[in-house]
């Protein structure tokens, strides 16, 4: 993974605490806010709203879709921590102000908290999702 070690460790601690107590302690919530800045609270809101869907194909390919507050669906790739939203492009890629956007952080948090919706699709359907995403960007 390409996240800094401190971010990886924090997400592991969140997962462990949640598995043990079904809660995320305040000190870990503060850690999320410290490490991920303004993305932390909106990402937690997205997880609370069950906005993260893991899309799986028979080939083993997995991507995530996050329903943003605006109602737009963003495609996220956790393997390379990339999101198709404008905030990711601007704040993460161009300005390097943030480690990640709220959508990809919501993906990581939903994985840690076991809060992903699951959607099984055919390989062809997955290809169509990726192609549609490419057209939106083009």
From TrEMBL:
InterPro entries reported in the protein's UniProt record: Znf_SWIM (IPR007527)
One matching Pfam family: SWIM
Keyword field contains Ribonucleoprotein: no
GO cellular component labels: Shu complex
Protein name as it appears in the record: ZSWM7 protein
Annotated GO MF terms: zinc ion binding
Domain of life: Eukaryota
Biological processes per GO annotation: double-strand break repair via homologous recombination
Alphabetically ordered keywords of this record: Metal-binding, Zinc, Zinc-finger
SWIM-type domain boundaries: 74-112
């Amino acid at each position: 993974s390409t996240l800094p070690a401190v971010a990886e460790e924090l997400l592991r601690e969140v997962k462990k605490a949640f598995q043990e107590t079904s809660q995320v302690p305040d000190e870990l919530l503060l850690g999320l806010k410290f490490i991920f800045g303004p993305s932390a609270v909106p990402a937690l809101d997205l997880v609370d709203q069950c906005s993260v869907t893991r899309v799986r194909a028979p080939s083993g390919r997995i991507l995530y879709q996050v329903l943003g507050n605006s109602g737009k669906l963003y495609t996220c790739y956790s393997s390379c921590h990339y999101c198709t939203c404008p905030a990711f492009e601007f704040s993460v890629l161009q300005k390097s102000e943030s480690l990640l956007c709220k959508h990809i952080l919501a993906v990581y948090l939903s994985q840690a908290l076991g809060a992903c919706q699951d959607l099984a699709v055919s390989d062809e359907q997955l290809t169509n999702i990726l192609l549609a995403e490419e057209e939106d960007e083009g």
